[in-house]
Amino acid sequence: MATLIDTIGNTPLVEIKRLNPNPNVKIYAKLEGNNPGGSVKDRAALNMIRSAIERGEIKPGTKLIEATSGNTGIALAMMARLFDLEIELVMPSNSTRERTLTMEAFGAKVTLLEGIEQCRDYAEEKAATGEYYLMNQFANPDNYGAHIKTTGPEIWRDTEGKITHFVSAMGTTGTIMGNSIYLKQQNPEIRIVGCQPTEGSSIPGIRRWPVAYLPKIFDASKVDRVIDISEADATLMARKLAHTEGIFAGMSSGGALTAAIQLASELKEGVIVFICCDRGDRYLSSELFG
């Protein structure tokens, strides 16, 4: 009999056929919305909490705190409940209501502040008092370690080692770092492509960080190319994913597919895998599908 933790990972890899402009290139979506918490962040949340418990850093009664734009918070709220831990999640006030309600449904305390940078400062200040354990996804190697252990091996297995390009949004950068490390160990020729917003674009899950807040786990040498994605293109592609391919996902997934399609149009042949990082239902109160 499986536990909830057993259902994290081994998500489907499905081919994008109608939106692919090049018949000589395969594009596959890694459907991370199929995780029980609805996003790729379930993997990181589990690995961060379980690893800290194994090291003795988190004990019964430890209070957790974390700044999040949404998906990591939902995943951590779910994991905290499974491990009987209290957690406070600090989110930007413009986050969708679905995110806040989901975290609160798991029993988390949610604090809303103006922006993610302020949220990070607040969480670090409270952790500095010694009363909270900061998960610190932005500097925690267990974040990207989850993808070395699980996501990367799944992609390698399910493409039978034929993957040529890996595409991911860049937020905390844990997903792209971990997959880069694993996949390049298997084949150094695999190209790792990240997505960031164009100047002035706001895309949940994809960030262009100020230098002072750049995630410490990010190593630019592990990313071969960065493609800038506009808010309009990410929105349009998320809608096309649902209307054309029947895949209901968020705006960052639309951004990653935009980059994958651009790559496919440039290649003679190849196998592209992009991370479809969450489900679209947590954006229904936004204008994404309006």
From TrEMBL:
It comes from the Bacteria. Residues 6-278 form the Tryptophan synthase beta chain-like PALP domain. It is an enzyme of class 2 (transferase). It catalyses: O-acetyl-L-serine + hydrogen sulfide = L-cysteine + acetate. The keyword Amino-acid biosynthesis applies. Coiled coil: none annotated. Its cofactor is pyridoxal 5'-phosphate. Its EC number is 2.5.1.47. The modification N6-(pyridoxal phosphate)lysine is found at residue 41. One of its GO terms (biological process) is cysteine biosynthetic process from serine. Pyridoxal 5'-phosphate binds at residues 71, 171-175, 252. Keywords: Amino-acid biosynthesis, Cysteine biosynthesis, Pyridoxal phosphate, Transferase. Pathway: Amino-acid biosynthesis; L-cysteine biosynthesis; L-cysteine from L-serine: step 2/2. InterPro entries: Cys_synth, Cys_Synth/Cystath_Beta-Synth, CysM, P-phosphate_BS, TrpB-like_PALP, TrpB-like_PALP_sf. GO terms for molecular function: cysteine synthase activity. Pfam families: PALP. PANTHER family: CYSTATHIONINE BETA-SYNTHASE (PTHR10314). Belongs to the cysteine synthase/cystathionine beta-synthase family. This is Cysteine synthase. It comes from Mucilaginibacter pineti.
